[in-house]
Amino acid sequence: MSGGGSEGTPEPGGLRAALGGMTTRGRSFLAAGVAAAVCSYLLGQPDLLRVGLLLTALPLVCVLVLHRTRYRVAGSRALSPARVPAGTESRVRLLMENVSRLPTGVLMLQDRVPYVLGPRPRFVLDRVEAGGRREVTYRVRSDLRGRYPLGPLQLRLSDPFGMCELTRSFQTFDTLMVVPRVEPLPAVRLAGEAAGYGDGRHRSLALAGEDDVIPRGYRHGDDLRRIHWRSTARHGELMVRREEQPQKARCTVLLDTRDLAHPGAGPDSAFEWAVSAAASTAVHLLERGFAVRLLTDTGSSVPGPDGAGGFPGSAGSADTAGLMLDTLAVVEHSEEEGLSAAYEVLRGGSEGLLIAFLGDLDTEQAAIAGQMRRRCGTAIAFVLDGDAWSRGPGGIRFATGQVPIAERLRLLRRAGWTALPVTPGDALADLWRAAADQAGTAPGRLEPGPDGAAETVTGGRP
């Protein structure tokens, strides 16, 4: 069975498995038959021996008949949807079909699901005629993001006397992806955003668009309709017209996943807030036309490295958003001690907009974050207050041993970051609006350059 509706058949079991599936009733009949046979020998009662043989043979015959039964049952599973945000439900539809020429007996179905998705669903199907179908549905839900396997489906067969039960499992399973919650963000103007988002977008030299006055040499794969015949005759080789296409504004979303940077765990922890906020930011910027890259403190980026940048190329924003959400669904705490790996990735090129979700920082890591700021035009940091997030029941505060939040903000702002503190209960939409206001008035505001790269200017104009 699979989420796409492909069929599967249960794995058959051997005779030993059939004997192992004998129920309590069957074992009781077998034990009573053996006891009756022994008593008939000791007491010299041949009639009691007949009774013992009957009691012994009945469960064994049921086991043999059930073992020889060749039901051909096909099943399929469909998830609707297969990717859900944390805290929402997904509907699972199971379709069973009897593809044999014989009707089945009573079938008991059980689908194996992780305990975080709820109890295992069980269904009882009455006699299914030859070629008949039965459909059942159930719902799963998880408040924790992650990748959860569904299946394999187990089919339990039983004889009419209840002497034996056989469990056969289908071979395939499906995967339910529970992604972080995505919060809608206000459509505010960010520094580094291409003006107008349409006709006002800057353009760069590429392989499709309007003609440029300077031709270039023909390359394998170029459209023959773009050949510039005058230049070809002049240079004695094929020349094609250079063209241009819209250039997207670029953004890197940096997620600090260090274990020592985020105290606590669970759905309401600081780390889960940061993961959800990173997902919301990436999806929001993709919808607004940005070329977005997700980067963690380990140096891994999504989409994968594309040259030196790692930004998405021709892939659609929906595919990129799905890839990022799937990555964030399974991201865990890292064992990194600092942000050096992420800085090494950022120093390889010029960034446009850098949005970071940072945890506890010491003075050294704050200095590294300051160096990241030099690689971009505008940098916005949402700094989680570990001291506030680490308070236990009754307001008990657990020491984190890190630099106080006020000092972290001061160090980041001194390096040119637009830094905002994040405490439990803060709404990302409000922080997003406040960050846009502060970034818009920052002395080093980012504006798009003529070649699509970011340029930092002073004052309110480029």
UniProtKB/TrEMBL annotation:
InterPro entries: DUF58 (IPR002881). It comes from the Bacteria. Residues 439-462 are annotated as: Disordered. Residues 216-300 form the DUF58 domain. This is DUF58 domain-containing protein.
